[in-house]
Specification:
heterodimer, A: 964 residues, alpha+beta, DNA polymerase, domain 1, Aldehyde Oxidoreductase, domain 3, Aldehyde Oxidoreductase, domain 4, seven-stranded mixed beta sheet, B: 246 residues, Enolase-like, domain 1, 9 helices, 12 strands, 30% helix, 27% strand
Chain lengths: 964, 246
């Protein structure tokens, strides 16, 4: 049918089918800011304005919108200009990946047109239909309030760093603090940190303008002529053999261009986890197998002229299955007689496939039994952590095509373009040199995209058809067939002496890696490493079985084994403190690692070349200060205020405060490597090419700040490009909290080469000694105050004299992994009659070394805490008895919304980490670590009930209260 | 899947279309479009009919069929408890499209708004060729045939009572596992409606909550839901307190 739609004030005639959504039709009309998050409308990435009302274009038919005024963010975009709302989002640091930013900007526009002076609650309500997995909503909410002020003619205060006084030794931790501006980054400065011009400042993101404007920047924001649409047929059984596949009817359907399955795709073994060469064992996957091992496992794939035809073709593929008994629990899976999940003869590298034991991991620093024998008390508890999903708002999507040189070009929303290229080559039978992976902007990853999940499918289909092929997972497919966090059963056994010092500690884990190994080894190694590193103890032992089961496959998820370990450890440390009658923070303080202490379990459980470096030692720690800052912010002294703990006017409510300590890693030592190159342009600007993969965190900006600091320019004089296997240097990718530290050091070294070349030419032009020259404000300065601009230096070197390209290339791999530390606090209210827990406030004070950008660092903490709160409180992948996920949609799978998140505060406690660029350590993952145990410990504080399983849903808490 | 689309201009035309066996009536369309189903259907969009608007007269609140949920949230005419339940029904992007009629027509089994409307004693206006009728909401939820081939024209809600809602949910704005809404009419009649204790929102007898057989799911077992029903009903009734209006 033909429709006339009024889009951004212009009348446009479009053709569409009656069933097509407004999102589909607007995207086809080139309005790429309207983005896919799900088909059911609740993600809000496709929100638009219809007659000034914010509606989800996912669930409005295009034809319903005929006769109405449709607005998208493109209508607010004037070249070279920003709308005040867009400006406010940029200034507030409200944009991470930017995938849903256009929708939020429109939500703000609709609200402010109706309500020029909204309350925070009204803003939160307006944003309630736009899910955000990245920011924790704090900055978007305040961006809207900021825009409101500006539109009313007020000028809001600049978003500037608030410097907090150090509390260590001051005794002030027990006094309330004055209110601070809500989104000003809080930094506790270290006197050791030298002044810098760009690093450490609240710079706006380098990619923020295009994201605020909704410019085409993501994988799906391109339209290739002749492009085919792929769909995948997924297994309806948790465990079955494929007896036969008859694809004749599917192939005969007009518009179907290829059908692929185990019968026509070469059987090449691989492991899908995006990791360095050689990928860790086992190699237990093939592109298409003759057996399926979970509901959602791949069976076949189709490429067709349209998505509808592809979907129809799936229905025509006749698959005969022989269902097999299935097992879902990790403890049952490794018992004698359990169904054997990997019985294929050609799989490589499982520890004991006949018993579903993929890996057995052991590590110990000394015999633990003497320590237990000598202990004053020995406490043993078992904890269970469940399966949750990363759920970036942009699902997995990849588009493949042959380029003009007959090379396979795949644009993919991936965290690991270089690993994906190397891993794809054998599957597709192409040499690496004939594959190019382009990573455009990514709408979030959180580890879900540290996986070569779908690139092989589009590769096979393009090779089969010769045509471009696009595959985007629906939200339901994302839930059922992508990746998730490993469930674990964790037992801690701890001996303490009469003074509360640990004498021995043992951690036994049975982990569930689902149907395939992928990250199963390394995640569980991190579990052991993190579970046994926070506290000094003369004897530690780790014992872990990693089990195959028939659940959808866990993989990499922000935190990577640490959130599991630290839920158990930090719950356990509170339990031990209670057993021996000691204050939970004081008990930890007697044991936690300090600067100079060895990380003694690391040589056995670290990835990479740890053993070559010997036992690593803590080189910086701001933990004590972080604890004091967090105590003050959360109001820890209220723990001893009975009137606060049990409010008189609400008899069924108990209040409590909880604490957890977290320590993480910074990159994988001896393994993670990043490369960078930097070159000058005629005007004194620079191109920075990095393999590092910004997935919305702001790493491009942080890397630009590092380069800008070294060469004396502003951050927006650095044009960052990341990442493309043809154009940028290698990088292992965005994972393991590595980008600032590893890729940042590579950038710093490349920039230092450039700096030397600039200084040499400046010395020549100014007639002074190179050693006396300083670079700042886009110029090279002699000691006598004379200067020559970088533009003049660029023109001189490129065109006039001794011509050469001022450029530098460097790469970096670190022998160290200096840990960031954090103090996580939670405030809860427990309804003791229903078990409902309301989390009122989360505070995390973190030592990430020197934060290169305090705004993006704070954003990592705020968003990470809310994602971690989902793990603690409400998110779970739930299954029926047949292993089918029963809640594969947002809503039933609950992630926090803007109108219900607790108050959040991030406090950045500086230390100067000597090995990091400008003193930086990591911050990306540590926010995932402490929330679950802090909330659990807060519930224990409120009610006396210690709950050893998450999520802390109402019925679980109620049952624990009943049992107590 | 919607294979053709009509936007009738008169109720008569709409009724003729709705009488087709393959007709699906669209209020805002948010539920139908989210879960389109496979069989071909004809969409009958009510937006061009003049069925919207909120009025209060003679002690009755009249909600037009195509009143959007956001209009309920924003209207001072609507009792505060219903406004909050309309807000809890869906987030901003959905509330701006979803309608009162659509909420009744799709009858989400855990709908907070329907639970509230039940407690308030709402009646549903239903038009079909040659006849108009008004049914209690419970009857409409009970017997889907009452809506077949018809158009919902609006809902009436008695005003002047007092109401309170108490729910338990995983997070503050999540759909409650169990929700209890109690309402005392101006004449003193008390009704309690609940969601999460049956396959749809129901009116319950507060004295006989133990006879409920709630469907279990991963958020709450049957036994837990019965416990919540007791606690939340007690709270809702207690909140009714004195006799000032809602």
């Amino acid at each position: 049918m033909t429709l006339t739609l009024t889009i951004n004030g212009t009348s446009r005639t479009v053709t569409c089918e009656p069933h097509e959504s407004l999102r589909t039709v607007l995207r086809r009309a080139g309005l790429y800011s309207v983005r896919y998050g799900s088909d059911t409308g609740e993600t809000g990435a496709a929100a638009v304005l219809v007659d000034g009302r914010l509606v989800s274009a996912d669930v409005m038919l295009a034809v319903q919108a005929e006769g109405h005024r449709i607005e998208t963010v493109e209508g607010m975009s004037v070249p070279g200009q920003l709308h005040p709302i867009q400006e406010a989002f940029i200034e507030a640091g409200a944009i991470q990946s930017g995938y849903s930013t256009p929708a939020m900007v429109l939500a703000a526009k609709a609200l402010l047109e109706r309500t020029p002076n909204p309350t925070e609650a009204e803003v939160r309500d307006a944003l309630s239909g736009i899910l955000d997995r990245e920011t924790g909503y704090l900055r978007p909410v305040h961006a809207v309030l900021r825009a409101a002020a500006r539109l009313r003619g007020e000028e809001p205060a600049a978003v500037e760093v608030v410097r907090l006084d150090r509390l260590e030794g001051s005794g002030a931790a027990h006094r309330d603090r004055d209110d601070l501006p809500p989104i000003a980054p809080r930094v506790v400065p270290s006197p050791d940190v030298p002044a810098t011009r760009v690093v450490g400042h609240a710079e706006t993101k380098t990619d923020a303008v295009k994201l605020a404007k909704g410019n085409p920047a993501f994988t799906d924001d391109r339209d290739l002529s002749g492009m085919l649409f792929a769909k995948v047929l997924y297994s309806p059984y948790a465990h079955a053999r494929i007896v036969s596949i008859d694809d004749a009817a599917a192939r005969a359907l007009p518009g179907v261009r290829a059908v692929i399955h185990h019968g026509n795709v070469p059987r090449v073994r691989y492991a899908s986890g995006g990791q360095s060469y050689p990928n860790p064992l086992p190699y237990d996957q093939v592109s298409f197998d003759n057996k399926v091992r979970y509901v959602g496992d791949r069976v076949a794939a189709v490429a067709a002229d349209t998505e509808e035809i592809a979907r129809a073709a799936l229905d025509l593929i006749k698959v005969t299955y022989e269902p097999l008994p299935a097992v879902f629990d990790e403890n049952e899976a490794i018992r004698e007689g359990a169904p054997v999940i990997h019985d294929e003869p050609d799989m490589e590298g499982a520890h004991d496939a006949a018993h579903n034991i993929v890996h057995h991991i052991e590590a110990r620093t000394a015999d633990v039994e003497p320590g237990f024998a000598a202990a004053h008390r020995v406490v043993e508890r078992t904890y269970r952590v469940h399966q949750v999903q990363q759920t970036p708002l942009e699902p997995h999507i990849a588009i493949a095509r042959w380029d003009s040189d007959d090379r396979l070009e795949i644009t993919s929303s991936t965290q690991v373009p270089f690993h994906a290229r190397r891993m794809l080559a054998p599957l597709l039978g192409l040499p690496v040199k004939r594959i190019r992976i382009i990573k455009p902007r990514i709408g979030g990853g959180f580890g879900a995209k540290q996986e070569m999940l779908i690139e092989d499918i589009v590769g096979h289909l393009t090779m089969a058809t010769g045509r471009p092929v696009r595959l985007e997972l629906t939200r339901e497919e994302e839930f059922m067939s992508s990746r998730s966090r490993h469930p674990q059963t964790i037992t801690f056994r701890t001996g303490v002496d009469a003074q509360g010092k640990l004498t021995a500690q043992e951690m036994r884990v049975v982990a569930n890696t689902g149907a395939y190994g992928t990250h199963g080894l390394t995640v569980q190694m991190v579990t052991g490493m993190r579970g046994l590193s926070s506290y000094n103890c003369p004897a530690k032992r780790f014992d872990c079985d990693v089990a195959y089961t028939n659940i959808p496959v866990p993989g990499a998820f922000r935190g990577y084994g640490a959130p599991q370990a630290l839920f158990a450890l930090e719950a356990h440390m509170d339990d031990v403190a209670a057993e021996i009658g000691m204050d939970p923070i004081e008990f930890r303080r007697r044991n936690w690692v300090r600067k100079g202490d060895p990380l003694d379990i690391a040589p056995q459980l670290g990835e990479g070349d740890v053993e070559a470096g010997g036992t690593p030692v803590i080189t910086s720690s701001g933990l004590e200060e972080a604890v004091l800052q967090g105590q003050r912010s959360i109001g820890w002294h209220r723990r001893s205020d009975p009137g606060w703990r049990q409010p008189a006017d609400r008899p069924h409510i108990r209040r409590g405060l909880g604490f957890a300590m977290a320590m993480h890693g910074t990159a994988i030592p001896g393994l993670d490597m990043g490369g960078a190159s930097l070159k000058i342009n005629d005007d004194g600007s620079f191109n920075l090419l990095v393999g590092a993969t910004d997935l919305g965190t702001g790493s491009d900006t942080v890397l630009a700040q590092i380069a800008a600091e070294v060469v004396g320019v502003g951050v927006h004089d650095i044009i960052v490009y990341s990442s493309d296997t043809d154009l940028t240097p290698f990088d292992t990718g965005a994972y393991a909290s590595s980008t600032t530290y590893i890729s940042g050091t590579a950038v710093k070294r490349a920039a230092e080469q450039v700096r030397r070349q600039i200084v040499d030419r400046a010395a020549l032009l100014l007639g002074v000694d190179a050693a006396s020259i300083d670079l700042h404000d886009r110029a090279a300065w002699a000691a006598d105050g004379r200067s020559v601009s970088l533009a003049e230096i660029a023109l001189s070197t490129l065109h006039q004299q001794g011509q050469h390209q001022i450029m530098g290339t460097a790469s970096y791999v670190s022998p160290d992994s200096p840990p960031p530390f954090a103090a996580q606090f939670a405030e809860v209210e427990v309804d003791v009659e229903t078990g409902q827990v309301t989390v009122q406030r989360l505070v995390m004070a973190v030592d990430c070394g020197v934060p290169i950008n305090p705004v993006t660092a704070s954003g990592q903490v705020e968003g990470g805490m809310v994602q971690a709160l989902g793990y603690a409180h409400c998110e779970e992948m739930a299954y029926d008895d047949a292993g089918r996920m029963v809640n594969p949609a947002f809503g039933p799978y609950r992630i926090y919304r803007a109108d219900e998140v607790p108050a959040l505060e991030a406090i950045l406690v500086q230390t100067l980490e000597g090995s990091g660029p400008f003193g930086a350590k990591a911050i990306a993952e540590i926010p995932m670590d402490g929330v679950a145990p802090a909330v659990r410990n807060a519930i224990a504080d409120a009610t006396g009930v210690r709950i050893n399983n998450i999520p802390l849903t109402p019925e679980r808490v109620w049952r624990a209260l009943q049992a107590s | 899947m919607i294979t053709s689309y009509y936007r009738p201009r008169t109720l008569q035309d709409a009724l003729a279309l709705a009488a087709r066996p393959d007709a699906v009536v669209l209020g805002g369309g948010t539920a139908v479009n989210a879960h389109p189903g496979r069989p071909p259907v004809v969409a009958v969009d009510l937006q061009a009919l003049d069925l919207g608007g909120i009025r209060a007269d003679a002690g009755l609140l009249r909600l037009g069929a195509t009143t959007r949920l956001q209009e309920l949230v924003d209207s001072e005419l609507v009792p505060g408890v219903l406004r909050e339940l309309a807000r809890l029904e869906a987030p901003s992007t959905i509330r701006n499209a979803a309608t009162v009629a659509g909420t009744i027509g799709t009858a989400d089994p855990e709908s907070p708004l329907l639970t509230g409307l039940l407690a308030f004693g709402a009646r549903v206006g239903v038009a079909r060729a040659g006849s108009n009728a008004e049914h209690p909401l419970e009857a409409v939820l009970d017997d889907r045939d009452l809506l077949r081939g018809s158009i919902i024209t609006g809902v009436t809600v008695p005003l002047g009572g007092r109401a309170a809602a108490h729910g338990t949910a995983r997070t503050p704005r999540d759909v409650p596992i169990v929700l209890a809404v109690a309402c005392r009419d101006a004449d003193g009649t008390v009704r309690v409606a609940m969601s999460g204790v049956a396959s749809r929102p129901v009116l319950v007898d507060p004295e006989r909550l133990g006879q409920l057989v709630p469907p279990a799911d991963f958020r709450g077992s049957s036994a837990y839901r019965i416990h919540l029903a007791t606690v939340l009903t007690t709270r809702a009734l207690a909140s009714l307190g004195g006799s000032e209006p809602a």
